[in-house]
Design a protein that fits this description.
Radius of gyration: 22 Å
CATH superfamily of the largest domain: Gcn5-related N-acetyltransferase (GNAT)
Structural class: alpha+beta
Shape: elongated
Strand order of the largest sheet: 1-2-3-4-5-12-6-11-10-9-8-7
CATH topology of the largest domain: Aminopeptidase
CATH class of the largest domain: Alpha Beta
Number of strands: 12
CATH architecture of the largest domain: 3-Layer(aba) Sandwich
Largest sheet: 12 strands, mixed
Strand content: 25-35%
Length: about 290
Amino acid sequence: MINIEQLSVFSINPYKNFLYESTFRLLVSLDTNYIPLGASIDGVPAGAIVGWLDQKAKIALVVSIYVSKKFRRRGVGTALLTAMADSYKKSEADEIKMTFVSPEFPEGLQAILKKLGWSEPAPFIHTFKMDKKIMESPLIRYRKLGPEYSYLIWKNFSADEREALKNQKWYPHNFSPFRLDENEIDADNSLILKYKSEVAGWLIVTPEDEETLFYHLAYVREDLQRLGRLMSLFLEAGSIQIAQNKYAYAAGRVNAKNTRMVTFTDKHLKPYTLKFETSYESGKQL
């Protein structure tokens, strides 16, 4: 018989091998946004699942799920996912989602999700990692800009200029450079693009780890997008990163629904990446 229990800091250790180290640290730090559940058979730990509630969006996310190889094909995965969905039905969540990073979505997990009424897994985000070899690609031509363009490093972007940009309406809110806290931003590598002395775009960069900068958020004014100005920003930031010689790698992501950008990435960026992964997403209304 499968037994499901909500784990606490006192009962989580037997399930540690079923969790990512980073997730385990969050759970033992008593972060209340996370819900960990463990599954056991005859008292032996068989698997674990961790959920996180985005209270603002009212979406529950499955952060991780793992079933011991010894106990697979015995309904443990089904029991864990069912119990997690039931837990969030009692909260304010309207939907539960899962993402999975892999060359392809695992067939076994896909079969479980289908049985439980989750949506067909579909590509969600493409993530990539590269080094300075990108500067050897034909894309380098986009770095050349006319005299009407200029760059400004984020740390030199004045308070008055920032306030003026906050009040402008030409960019979508979800691409605002002010979505991130100032202490998250690498102010030496993030850039502002100006066109005829007016702000026309930006690239906000954040540290991912000691070796990698994550090219987190970028936007260019709509009338300049098809001129390759977004790529100009990436290449300029890359050249600054290389010159500083602090971070060896750059990472980024592309929304799988942005077909134009996906096509561009496949053709021009993918051949120069060190790692390219796809996140698949599946979900269910609660």
